[in-house]
């Protein structure tokens, strides 16, 4: 007899929908420190109410981490433990004028739940709790042990997460980890991501004089804007190759398995151009690797902001005395923020730009799971049961950044994403939403996965 997980998932998701709505009503904006303890308590109580053990860990600073533990049932495989990583904090709701509904009053419109944090990341947490309840009720116990690590600082860069992972490595020990989220792409395929890029974020600035100067003096005096523009132009050539000394050499060469995985990853260049209304071709047109290789296997070098001189209406002739740029570098394995800082510093110095001040504002290391680990097949195969054979794709690592590195380092687990988002979920944006049908499937996927993973 086959069990109808699809029907069970929908039943339980509906039965506990009000719990999700309660969770979404907490205004857990970590950047503004709003309702942090209240939400952490809710997460703890939710785990306990579902039959687990839970504890709030706050001794290492920052917003607390909620620990959760569910023991395998009598017929389960108590040798295996699956860890879920989630975060209970959300992004600020700004710009509030662009919301069609109250961001902290979940509202159902056209089969979607609209609320701040619903896709990033509260529905994913609740889908996992609902899956656990469904299995416990219908099967009398879980097929394996389950743990939760639910933090409250993801949206502000997880500044304390590695301390908690290192100190509590035994408490959170597991055989594998399911990451906070996963999403369907524009073709309705579920994308399972096996890693993240890291980031090194810099501020570069130049002060060229004590005061702004009349621009007639440009005949003999340089200015801050030119100094900075020249320095920045040494970082990347007009064909978009990164030209920082020693930078290319730092990259870890991908394995054949990784290269094959990237080659098989679908990417629609025309859709990208259309979506953003690009006025120029993709920069990969001039590079000797493809767009999907660029997104997954290569670092980036981005000027994110520039500030200098007079930018008001009309004219003002002046030699600006200072200039500032924000630089964002996305990292793949082989790159670490501190080492990238050293390279950039040496590069500026060696190119005659000792006067360019450089500061590393924030850094996150990259992480990539070894996709030959059998856990990859568990996640992919269980997803195919739910989404269909053709509708599941593996992404070696996402082009974005997240705090995976510490989980790999201190817990030594393979990590893959799964979740309830879709291409228009609008994480961090107004009218953030998920589709209820995707939520049902998300619950079903976790039910399937717990069974697949637990097989001896
Ligand atoms: Zn986020």
Automatic annotation (TrEMBL):
Pfam families: M20_dimer, Peptidase_M20
GO biological process, one term: proteolysis
GO CC annotations on file: cytosol
Positions of the Peptidase M20 dimerisation domain: 196-354
SUPFAM superfamilies documented for this protein: Zn-dependent exopeptidases
GO MF term list: metal ion binding; peptidase activity; succinyl-diaminopimelate desuccinylase activity
Keyword Protease: yes
Domain of life: Bacteria
Key words of the record: Hydrolase, Metal-binding, Protease
Alphabetical list of PANTHER family matching this protein: BETA-ALA-HIS DIPEPTIDASE, DI- AND TRIPEPTIDASE DUG2-RELATED
Name of the protein described by the UniProt record: M20/M25/M40 family metallo-hydrolase
């Amino acid at each position: 007899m086959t069990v109808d997980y699809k029907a069970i998932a929908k039943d339980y998701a509906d039965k506990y929908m009000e719990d999700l709505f309660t969770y979404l009503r907490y205004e857990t904006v970590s950047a503004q420190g709003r309702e942090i303890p209240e939400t952490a308590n809710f997460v703890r109580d939710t785990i306990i109410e579902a039959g687990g053990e839970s504890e709030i860990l706050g001794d290492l600073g920052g917003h607390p981490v909620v620990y959760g533990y569910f023991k395998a049932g009598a017929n389960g495989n108590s040798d295996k433990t699956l860890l879920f990583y989630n975060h209970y904090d959300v992004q600020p709701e700004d710009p509030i004028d662009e919301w069609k509904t109250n961001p902290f009053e979940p509202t159902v419109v056209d089969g979607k739940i609209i609320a701040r944090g619903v896709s990033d990341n509260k529905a994913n947490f609740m889908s996992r709790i609902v899956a656990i309840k469904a299995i416990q009720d219908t099967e009398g116990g879980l097929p394996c042990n389950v743990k939760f690590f639910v933090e409250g600082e993801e949206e502000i860069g997880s500044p304390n997460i590695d301390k908690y992972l290192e100190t509590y490595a035994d408490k959170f020990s597991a055989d594998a980890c399911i990451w906070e989220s996963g999403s369907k792409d524009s073709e309705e395929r579920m994308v399972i991501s096996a890693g993240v890029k890291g980031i090194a974020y810099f501020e570069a600035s130049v002060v060229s004089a004590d005061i702004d100067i009349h621009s007639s003096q440009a005949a003999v005096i340089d200015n801050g804007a030119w100094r900075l523009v020249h320095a920045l132009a040494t970082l990347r050539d007009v064909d978009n190759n990164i030209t920082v000394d020693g930078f290319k050499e730092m990259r870890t060469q991908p394995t054949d398995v990784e290269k094959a995985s990237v080659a098989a990853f679908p990417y629609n260049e025309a859709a990208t151009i259309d979506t953003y209304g690009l006025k120029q071709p993709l920069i990969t047109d001039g590079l000797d690797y493809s767009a999907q290789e660029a997104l997954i296997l290569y670092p980036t070098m981005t000027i994110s902001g520039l500030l200098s001189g007079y930018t008001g209406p009309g004219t003002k002739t002046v030699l600006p005395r200072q200039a500032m740029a924000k630089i964002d570098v996305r990292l793949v394995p082989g790159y670490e923020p501190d080492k990238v800082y050293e390279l950039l510093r040496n590069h500026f110095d060696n190119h005659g730009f000792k006067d360019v001040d450089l500061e590393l504002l924030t850094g996150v290391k990259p992480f990539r799971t070894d996709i030959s680990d059998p856990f990859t097949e568990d996640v992919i195969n269980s997803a195919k049961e739910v989404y269909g054979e053709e509708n599941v794709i593996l992404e070696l690592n996402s082009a974005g950044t997240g705090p995976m590195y510490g989980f790999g380092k201190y817990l030594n687990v393979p990590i893959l994403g799964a979740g309830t988002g879709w291409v228009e979920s609008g994480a961090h944006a107004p009218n953030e939403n998920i589709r209820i049908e995707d939520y049902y499937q998300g619950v079903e996927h976790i039910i399937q996965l717990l069974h697949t993973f637990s097989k001896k």
